[in-house]
Amino acid sequence: MEIEASGSGNAGDAGSSGATAQLGKDDFLKLLIAQMQQQDPLNPADGAQFLAQLAQFTNLEQMVQINAKLDTLAMAQASLSSTAVASLIGHTVTVRGDAVELVEGEQPALHFEMESNVESCTVTIRDQDGRVVRTMELGGCQAGSNEVIWDGCDDDGNRLPAGSYTFSVNGTDAQGRQVEGDGLVTGVVTGVSYDQGYPQLLLGQVRVSLGDVVEIL
């Protein structure tokens, strides 16, 4: 009674696929030599075709080596970047942003920059839900850095609860044009977090992008 060996063909295919996946430069050269030895003397293969195949394989091998080196370089840069970012912990930095942390019993300073002198300037403070809780009319503001102290109260004079708020600055110059101010946040870096691989600095409860840092004090 003959028993048919089932699955032998599949095993051979798997082995062939594995061997193909492991083909390297030496195997490629052996195949070319074998092809030249088995060619028909009366109808020899085109030499230019062999050269083209060799060139293609060489280019592919070089690209693989370059990619490997780029991966190594990227890993080294990421390691250096993480070390550099971590070294900012404990340092005071100034970053572009609109966040302000209200701490119980304190009156935070709001820093901002104007690109030009303005005749009137309004600072608007909002809570975490986006509601306007305080509006401060400052009069004129100069081009460059400006500062205003917020007493932590709303428009009715009630002390607001501690937490995170945002502020915006808008001014009007002598020609009646609207000028928007850029908020600045100064604080001590208390930690580092990562969002999809990009580092963010923690200034207490405030998260800021590393690219927004304008000064390290």
Summarize the structure.
With 217 residues, the protein is an alpha+beta fold. The chain has helices spanning 8-21, 25-37, 47-86, and strands at 92-96, 99-102, 109-114, 118-126, 132-141, 144-149, 163-172, 178-180, 182-188, 191-195, 198-203, 206-209, 213-216. It has a domain at 98-186: Immunoglobulin-like (Sandwich).
Which terms summarize this structure?
five-stranded antiparallel sheet, elongated, 36% strand, Immunoglobulin-like, 31% helix, 217 residues
What does this structure look like?
This protein is an alpha+beta fold and 217 residues long. The N and C termini lie far apart (89 Å). Helices cover 31% and strands 36% of the residues. Strands 6-3-9-1-13 form a five-stranded antiparallel sheet, with no helix packed on it. Strands 2, 4, 5, 7 and 8 form a five-stranded antiparallel sheet that branches. The protein has a three-stranded antiparallel sheet with strand order 10-11-12, with helices on one face. The radius of gyration is 34 Å and the shape is elongated. The model is unreliable at 1-22 (pLDDT under 50).
